[in-house]
Every structure is written in structure tokens, then in C-alpha cells.
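[[Sequence with C-alpha cells]]
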Amino acid sequence: MADSDSDLPALGLQPPRGWWDVEWPTMVVVIAIYAAWLGLTWLQARIPLWLLLPAGAITVAWHGSLQHEVIHRHPTRLPWLNRILAFPPVMLWLPLESYRHSHLAHHDTAELTDPQEDPESNYLSPAQWARLGTAGRLAAAANATLLGRLLLGPALSISGFLVQELKDVLRGDQVKRRYWPVHLAGVAVILTWLISTCHMNLLRYILCFVYPGQSLALVRSFAEHRAAPGRAHRTAIVEHSPFWGLLFLNNNLHVVHHAHPHLPWYRLPQVYRTHRAAYLRLNGGLLYPSYGALFRRYLIKPHDVLLHPACHPDASPSATSQEVPLSPNTLSRRS
């Protein structure tokens, strides 16, 4: 993550110990997520929609954060056990192995945010922009705002992912041909529980769990990276986020996560507080004071240009100009 190892605070991290070394705060999260999901789905017919929808969304989004934690070798020293803990496909559409491969590639790339190199980039390349057409460009422009990300983002991300996965499978991608049958078997178990045991309408599950859960998950990725000349300056910090921080397992402190990707989620806040000045020097001050500040600023306003600046320095006619991040000082001047 850093431009040089000397830029990183020395944390004195302990090397992994034996298989018995378990991160119990994460295990508590595992139990809480599955208890909530099982309870909500079992009792879904008795829970009013105004309560079921936010509760279902939070549970599914939290499960996505757990999967992210597992990808980074938590909460045990046994990779197979970690994968079992995060495997149940409560989101239905996203195989854990696909997420693992793309996310590790995101961490490994030297060209963070470049859509041609970074599989989690929010930017478009000129070739992608050219293929979109008028409707696609309008959808991309809407998706660059928080409101558009919440309402349209799940449809765009899920459909785009599934279409690409299908193409790759049909082209003979052997890795994807191996993990999709396993994923579909997991989906079959989930659907059996939902439909046969809980008597839950599948559309109700999609509208109350899957779609809004992906909406919440997309809030995290909305502003966590931004194109910049220096690689270390491309990763953000969002402070003062007790609800969102727990939901995202402290990945709002994203520069700390990229600097130390194997640090467990519950250690990130203390590390950030202790070395705050160092991390802000490291990422060039890419700081947002809270998610509330992001919502106020970018609810209907694009967060950034649509085309990656390195791919198309002049940007797109419909793209907005690059803006400075929100810091506590700039926020007070603008409010």
C-alpha cells in the first residue's frame, strides 16, 4: 500500500501461532450474523416490512464484511475453516471464491483504481465508456452519486458480475467452472431453507435482504479509493462512524487496512488513533469526517470523474471535475 515500507508505522505485529489461535471478537460476529439471519428468515412472516427490510439489509451487508475478513485470513489459522464460516451464500449471487480472487488482485495490483488493472475500480476505461451507449452512460453517471449507488448500484453490479462470470465460464475458465457448482449447491441449501422451511417468497427475500444488503455494501466502496499520482494517496479514511464502522468491520479506516491487510478488524481503530498523523501523511490527507458528511456532499453529486484520469486525462464531457476530499476544516467552511 505504501510508497515505501518506511512510511508505515511499526506495529510490532505478532506472527501467526498455531491452529488453536482464534480471534474471538470475529467469532462473536460470525455467531451474531447467522443468528440474526436465521431468526429473521424464520420469523419473516411475523416481522413488519418496515423492520424486516433494514434488518435483512444490515445482516446481509454484515455478512459481506465477514467474507472480506475471511479473505484476509481471519478468524482462525485454518484457511479451510475460515472459508466454511463465510461460505453460506446468503447474498445468493456472489461466490466467495470469486470475491476472494478479485479482492486479492485488488490488493496486489500496483495500479490501484486503474479500471484495466484493478478489478474493484469505480472508474471506467475509454473502451468501457465507448461500449456503454446512451442509457449505460446515464446509469454510470447516476451510479457516481450516493443516491444512484443505493438505488441503481445493486442492479448494475449484480447484473454486470453475473454476465461476466457466465462469459468466463462459457469461454472455459477452469477456476470458475470449479467454484460455481459448489456455490450453486450452497444456494440450493439456502433456497430450501427459505422456501421449504420458512415459506418465504423468493422475491420478498431479494427485496428485503439481497438488494438492500448490496446497497449498504456499496456505501463502503463509494469513496474508499480515489485516483491520484501516488499509489499511497489513493486510499481514504472515513472517521467518526460507529454504525458504519461496525457494519463494515472498520474498513472505513481503509488506508490502515491496505497498509496492514492481515490486521484483524477490531485492531484497526486503535492503530489508527495511535498513528493518525502518520496515516494521513501516508495517504495525502484523503480524509472524510463521517459517512454523514459523504451523504450530505455526494447524495446527488458525483464523487469523482467517470473515466480514470490516467486513461483519459481530459475526462468525459459528462464527468465532473476532480474535487478535494472532505476534511473537518473544509467541511466547516462549506457548511
